[in-house]
Design goal:
CATH topology: Rossmann fold
Strand content: 15-25%
Oligomer: single chain
Largest sheet: 6 strands, parallel
Radius of gyration: 17 Å
Strand order of the largest sheet: 1-11-10-7-2-3
Distance between the termini: 14 Å
Bound molecules: 6-phosphogluconic acid
C-alpha cells in the first residue's frame, strides 16, 4: 500500500492522525500501544504534528515508546535520535517519561544492544518467539538503508538477535539497531519517505528494479503485518501514477 501526498506537511498530518488513531484504538481494546520510532530528519515534521494534537488529552501516556535505532552518542548529543524526539514531541507534554524506553547511545554498544533486546522481550508481547510491536515507523536513506541496516551490512536483516551494533559506512559511527526479524514481526510497518533524493531508490524497490535486493528497505516484508509507504510527491516522482 502506497499513500502519496502533495507535500510533507500533508503527509505528516495524515500520518499523525493515523498513528494517534491506532493508539486510541489500542486503548479501546484495553492495551497500551507499543511503537518503535526511527530518527534522522524526516520524522521531525511528523513528531511536530503529533505534538500539536491536543484535542485527545493523554494519548501520549497510552504509548510505550521504543526506538528502531540510535546513534552511539549521549542523549544530549545533536545527532541523538532520542534528543530529536524529545525536542519535537515529548517536551510539548507534561508526562513522566516512564513509558519512554530509549536506546542508551552513551553505553558500550554491544552491551546496550543486549540490554535493549532483553528489554524488548520483557516489555512486548511475544508471538512465535519474537517481540511484537504494534507499529514500527521507518525511514529510508538515499542508499536504501533502513533502521541502521546499511547495504554493506545486510546480514543484520536476517540476524538471530533482535538488536545489533551497526556502523555507518561513511562516518564509521556506531549505531544500535533493531534487526530485520523483529521489524518484520510487527503488526504494522509504516515507511515515511520524502524528497527527490529518495526517488530513484524508491522506484527500484517498489517498481521491482533489478537492483532492488541490494537495498535493505526492500527486505522489509512483514510476516503477518501490514506494510504501508507514506511518500511525498518528490519521492514518488518516478512511480507510475
Ligand atoms: C537514523 C534513522 C535512519 C533514517 C534514514 C533516513 O538514525 O538516521 O533511523 O534509518 O530513517 O537515514 O534519514 P532521513 O530521514 O534523515 O533522510
Amino acid at each position: 500500500m502506497i499513500h502519496a501526498f502533495k507535500s510533507i506537511d500533508e503527509l505528516a498530518c495524515s500520518l499523525a492522525e493515523k498513528v494517534i488513531g491506532l493508539v486510541m484504538a489500542s486503548v479501546q481494546e484495553g492495551h497500551r500501544f507499543n511503537i518503535a520510532l526511527s530518527g534522522g530528519s524526516t520524522p521531525r515534521v511528523l513528531f511536530e504534528k503529533m505534538a500539536s494534537v491536543t484535542e485527545i488529552p493523554g494519548w501520549l501516556e497510552q504509548v510505550n515508546f521504543f526506538w528502531v535505532d540510535e546513534r552511539c552518542v549521549p542523549p544530549e548529543h545533536h545527532e541523538s535520535n532520542y534528543r530529536m524526539t524529545d525536542e519535537t514531541l515529548f517536551k510539548h507534554f507534561s508526562f513522566s517519561y516512564a513509558n519512554v524506553y530509549r536506546m542508551m547511545g552513551e553505553e558500550e554498544p554491544r552491551a546496550e544492544a543486549d540490554r535493549y533486546e532483553a528489554l524488548l522481550r520483557s516489555q512486548l508481547p511475544v508471538r512465535e518467539g519474537l517481540p511484537c510491536f504494534d507499529l514500527v515507523l521507518l525511514g529510508m536513506g538515499t542508499d536504501g538503508h533502513t533502521a541502521s541496516i546499511f547495504p554493506d551490512q545486510m546480514q543484520l536483516m536476517h540476524s538471530g538477535r533482535l538488536c545489533e551494533v551497526a556502523r555507518h559506512p561513511e562516518t564509521g559511527q556506531q549505531r544500535i539497531t533493531l534487526t530485520g526479524p523483529v521489524i518484520n514481526h510487527a503488526d504494522k510497518v509504516f515507511f515515511m519517505i520524502t524528497g527527490e533524493n529518495k526517488a530513484s531508490v524508491l522506484v527500484s524497490i517498489l517498481g521491482d528494479g533489478i537492483d532492488r535486493e541490494n537495498f535493505p528497505a526492500a527486505h522489509i516484508k512483514p510476516v503477518h503485518g501490514e506494510l504501508v509507504w507514506y511518500v511525498d510527491k518528490e519521492a514518488a516522482r518516478f512511480l507510475q501514477k
